[in-house]
Fold each of these.
Amino acid sequence: MPKTYVLDTNVLLHNPQAVFAFEDNEVVIPFAVIEEIDNQKRRQDEIGRNARMISRQLDDLRTQGQLSQAITLRGGGTLRIEMNHQNAIDFPRGLDPQKCDNRILAVAHNIQQRNGGRVVLVTKDLNLRIKADVLGLAAEDFYNDKVDYHELHKGFREVQVSAEKLDAFYRQRALGWDHDPEPFPHEFLILRNSTNPSQSALAHYANKALRPLLHEEAVSWGVRARNKEQKFAMELLLDDSVQVVTLVGSAGTGKTLLALAVGLEKVIEQSAYSRFLVTRPVIPMGDDLGYLPGTKEEKLRPWMQPIYDNLEYILRTCPEPFDVLNDLLRRGTLELETLTYIRGRSIPNQFILCDEAQNLSPNMVKALITRVGEGTKIVFTGDPEQIDHPYLDASSNGLTYLVEKLKAEEIAGHVTLVKGERSRVAELGAKLL
């Protein structure tokens, strides 16, 4: 039996294509949602763009009929916009019937009372789901773009092999794979002797075979890997055939530092790319400082300060590290940019680093990755357990979504960094707090 899904505003602002994600069921958009979308359409960020996009989609659907009636969607199912009926529900005392969230609740409640069928309120607002439960309504998050973070592909695994196979791997510098399941492209394996666990080897799965790491002892601008996961990361970062790299790890695991060091190495030392572009989402932790004075570069400085800190550490051996950094920026070899200005660009032959990617929605990641031109390598780093975006979590953010979607692709590679290397204090904080 078809279900009725009542969508909250935040679902549509998170993913404008959400109306098409419910197969052959009925999708209902409360009138209050249209009002809230209208209030967001002038914003110059991803939320504003999504608001304008969903408005255009609804306007296109008007050509099929009146939106207050059931309009057939592509792929099955129907869509309609429902008026509020806030007077037809006895709200609990203290619950304002004029508030948009409560009007959305009223629509879902009245449809359930009128039709007697299965009605589900879909919202990314935790408190609204709690209110719905109190009123006896089924409520869910939007799961279409969620992945199971606890089962996220790590990019490496440990396997037991015989002493003969381990010896053959060292002698031939290659080993065929005859187990199930087959590793993903560019997955790393820790080969451990089944009879003597102290004997092991690190291997990279590529071209249907296990091969030794090519860059295990590589040094990029004075930065070298300190643990096996960082060695795996360096292997992907230094391999130009891997055009999309994702690095996930908690604070202090070195994901941003490694990516910056290799980016400088590739652009300045090897001239493999014409420019090093570093970007990150402008989402504050805690209260926002509001508008900042000055030029674009001066406005960006507080948001990009973590990048400056890492670059200054990498350039610490230079006689005048600040002068070197400013010279790279002045000549355009290094460019620091926010995602606000990425849309519409085409970026060929560049090394791109997107830091703090856990604060991006899947749509924002798509908008960025589709900017990549010929000969460009893009690296995403972040910690899905440190999210500042109000409607994203470890399972619904763009970084984990990207890892899951690209894990089987030949041009993509992923590593989850585990061990903190910043300091003992940082590692203790990441583990215990």
Amino acid sequence: MRPERRTSGNAALDLLLGGGFEIRTITQFYGGPASGKSTICTIAAVACLRAGHAVIFIDSEGFSIERFRQIACEDTETIADRLFLFEPVDFEQQGVMITEADRVLKTRKPGLLVLDSATALYRTDLERGRDAMQMLTRQVIHLLGYAKRYELPVIVTNQVYMDTTKNTYFGLGGTALEHISKAIVRLERLDMPGLRRATLVKHRSRPEGESFDFEIVQDGIRTRE
């Protein structure tokens, strides 16, 4: 039986993911600055809100109300009251807010949970070494527990590091975050001004390496042929 999915709010991204975000799993997006991670999260949140569901949005990088308004357009006022926003200021508080999200999950039964970004505040704790990695792993496992218990998709975004020996970049968080994520999409800026690419790097039923190009526009993203 085909797993239940929830739309990403963009037809090309839905196709790349095999029909949208799979419930009971974590989908990860990773990429460098301005690669489109937050915009894709906001598009997905707005699509879920428009469908009548609540959304939990944990934003460690500063949620843009103006960007939310641009993407939601005339629906902003009618859907905003179903958006539950958490804005941690440090990595430890991020873990606390993930735990506190359970109260909303129990009472409102949201259709989507977003963590943007899982590793922005983790970077500031890297001097703690293994302790920071274990904290991150616990946080992501906690999110996976929510996905399964409340039957919803979870989206996490991830920052990147450059592997100078291979001359390419990878998502932060080590193998734990990679293994826990059932689908992973790499976002990158291309040489052509304004153009970005979304590439599937992990999926259990779709070919890895498939991609589409897009540009960021006022009301979301626009795909390019």
